[in-house]
From TrEMBL:
Protein name, as recorded: Abasic site processing protein
Name of a matching Pfam family: SRAP
EC class of the enzyme, as a word: hydrolase
Keyword Nucleotidyltransferase: no
Matches recorded under InterPro entries: SRAP (IPR003738), SRAP-like (IPR036590)
Sequence intervals crossing the membrane: none
Gene3D superfamilies listed in its UniProt record: SOS response associated peptidase-like (3.90.1680.10)
EC number(s) per entry: 3.4.-.-
Keyword list, A-Z: Covalent protein-DNA linkage, DNA damage, DNA-binding, Hydrolase, Lyase, Protease
Biological processes, Gene Ontology terms: protein-DNA covalent cross-linking repair; proteolysis
PANTHER family, alphabetized: ABASIC SITE PROCESSING PROTEIN HMCES, DC12-RELATED
GO molecular function: lyase activity; peptidase activity; single-stranded DNA binding
Length: 282
């Protein structure tokens, strides 16, 4: 997981570490989703949405927050699959987990191995979802970055989004976890959680960070959500990144580093003289 734990009110200014230093390369755990439920219902052709699941616009989503997920499953036992918009917690908790705490470490799943990992393989076969997003944030740390506060390297945040400004859909998985300490009819007895699939970033975006969330183009939405697709090898055929140039990026204010900051201006491009490190990436 990126940096410090968001639930403790701190920030996760960069996820993982620079690959050239031989360390981690996970995607950074921060994105934005500001569309209304009505907009998402129309965009994803949703048949069911419970107003109790409504979330406020969020321009600085961090792990363990509630997020929107589009999924298909029966509303009632034995019924036909229904496309739903639900609120789920970001950070997947497998059904076999002893407690939900491990979800904070499972915000991303590598698309290359998700079909074989014990924590994800069942969900990959049967519980896939789309996570609507305006775009996501990533932090770039050049080898020559100047020292930052307290001796740390300065990191420049970038806002990465569809070049045409439209909403995107991250490929995700969802799970539910039973809290045995609650009664069966307790609304909180079942915890719904999710994770975002990642893959190697396209060359232009890899200049910022080597990994990126898997953005599924609209022609793959139906297949990804279809619960009748259960063969891992067939499903893996959908794990295809959008064409080069589909996503674009620009540097943004370091205000996004603090999860307490949550407003539309976090997505705005900043002038070159405010960029904390090398601004020649794009």
């Amino acid at each position: 997981m990126c940096g410090r734990h968001p639930a403790r009110g701190t920030f996760d200014a960069m996820c993982g570490r620079h690959p050239a230093r031989g360390t981690l390369d996970a995607m950074c755990g921060r994105y934005a989703s500001s569309k209304s439920p009505d907009d998402l219902v129309e965009m994803f052709e949703v048949d069911r949405f419970d107003p109790a699941d409504e979330l406020p616009p969020d321009w600085n989503i961090a792990p363990t927050k509630q997020v929107y997920a589009v999924l298909e499953r029966p509303v009632e036992s034995g019924g036909a699959p229904t496309r739903q918009l639900r609120s789920v917690k970001w950070g997947l908790v497998p059904s076999w987990a002893k407690d939900p705490g491990m979800g904070a470490k499972m915000i991303n799943a590598r698309s290359e191995t998700v079909h074989e990992k014990p924590a994800y393989r069942k969900a990959f076969a049967a519980r896939r979802c789309l996570l609507p997003a305006d775009g996501y944030f990533e932090w770039h740390t050049p080898e020559t970055a100047p020292d930052g506060p307290k001796g740390g390297s300065r990191k420049q945040p970038y806002w990465i989004h569809a070049a045409d400004g439209t909403e995107v859909a991250f490929a995700g998985l969802y799970e539910w976890w039973r809290d045995r300490g609650r009664a069966e009819d307790d609304p909180l007895a079942w915890l719904w959680t999710c994770t975002i699939l990642t893959l190697d970033a396209e060359p232009e975006l890899a200049r910022i960070h080597p990994r990126m969330p898997l953005v599924l183009t609209r022609d793959k939405w139906d297949g990804w959500l279809d619960p009748a697709w259960t063969e891992p090898e067939e499903i893996r055929g959908l794990l295809v990144p959008p064409p080069a140039g589909f996503m674009t990026a620009h540097p943004v204010s370091t205000d996004v580093n603090n999860v307490r900051n949550n407003a539309p201006h976090l997505l705005d491009a900043i002038p070159p003289d405010e960029v904390t490190v090398d601004a020649t990436l794009f």
